[in-house]
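Quick one:
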Amino acid sequence: MTSLIESEEHQALRKAVSALGKRYGRDYITQVIAEGRYPTELWQDAAKLGYLGVNLPEEYGGGGGGIAELSIVLEELGASGAPLLMLVVSPAICGTVIARFGTEEQKRAWLPGLADGTKLMAFGITEPDAGSNSHRITTTARRDGDDWLLTGRKVFISGVDHADAVLIVGRTEDARTGKLKPCLFIVPRDAEGFSRSPIDMELSAAEKQWELVLDDVRLPADALVGDEDAGLLQLFAGLNPERVMTAAFAIGMGRYAVAKALEYARERTVWKTPIGAHQAIAHPLAQAHIDLELAKLMMQKAALLYDAGDDVGAGEAANMAKYAAGEACVRAVDQAVHTLGGNGLTREFGLASLIIGARVARIAPVSREMILNYISHQTLGLPKSY
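Output:
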């Protein structure tokens, strides 16, 4: 279970997912983005092959695996040029939280659909005024008889237009202390008082970003996921997989960029030999490959710790993995574009669009600076400045 040498099952999963990704490839994603639609065909094929729910419990239609298996799926799709961002959100965050803390009714209502692709769930935590400080979340839920009334705003929420519901992070008042504590609510997309508007992004992606407004959205008691008093435990049950999956997304993107650069460097000849024979080209690509492999090892460690139930160890490793993968991805994409020179900025070679995408891996879902804060405080025991 803790071996860093992948099992035959994991190797087979990689090979199978890679084959699926290559059937679609970067051209497919580029076309989907240009047409302003969702990669439905790839999503449905991944669902039919059991990849979407590979981390979800077998009794609810999943594959019975964990985040280790799901991260393989996302990484290999990314390495083929056809990543699915909602894998980070729907099965990894929402599916994991519901599987761990949901009621039996919630599990039966959502997990089979998340596993077979017939249902999609988005995740809402980021707010306009809270930024990286989740303790400043102002979306609040208050009781009204047996119901909840949820009010607040969320920004940069992916895939809401295709989701059946959004798992919203709100805050409720602790009856004993009066302090606000985080809680999770399933909010149907068509709930009264729940509205959305698109955010105009420079980033070209199949999954759009949205601002959400919740104006006294009335929810039944069973919209609350898990224990009202569990607080951060339930929240980080979703955030740690999110960091692991973001690392997988970044590593896949970096691998794709390096592969395209290697293909070009082997064939492009300016003097007497292909440019890949020159160390000024070869060494930076070798460094990019090393960085991606090192990040991948930490990602695998984080996934294994999480799947083994070590939430504390997984928290540290997941943050490290996300940091390392984000940095490695940015460097890999930059070097790939530089290797192709002017061609690296053309639509024909399809690398320029990754420049913005790679930056996202540094920024979301938590910035590299906040990860450094986490490690300096939680791991190294240094005092806080905030």
